[in-house]
Every structure is written in structure tokens, then in C-alpha cells.
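Handoff note, outgoing to incoming analyst
You'll be picking up this chain. Sequence as last confirmed:
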Amino acid sequence: MNVARSFNNWRKYRETVNELGRMSSRELQDLGINRADIRSVARQSVIR
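Most recent structure output, in case you need it:
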């Protein structure tokens, strides 16, 4: 994996963590996401 792709994956991961972190617990619950699962969900977004 090259440096640019690694950086883009890291940036996408951080954006996802930040976006989900700003949501209320109710909004996360509506999406079926537990607050403790935010990092895991963000990692999955990079893999796809």
C-alpha cells in the first residue's frame, strides 16, 4: 500500500470517527451503532 493511499485511509477513518462522535446516542441507536463501536465501524468504512 502506498503512502498516499495510507494517508487517505487514515483521513477517512478520522472523518468517520469524528462524524459518528458528534451524533447523539439516540441517533447512533437509530443507526444500530453503539458509542463503543464507533472505532470499529470507522475501520470497516476504510476496508470497504
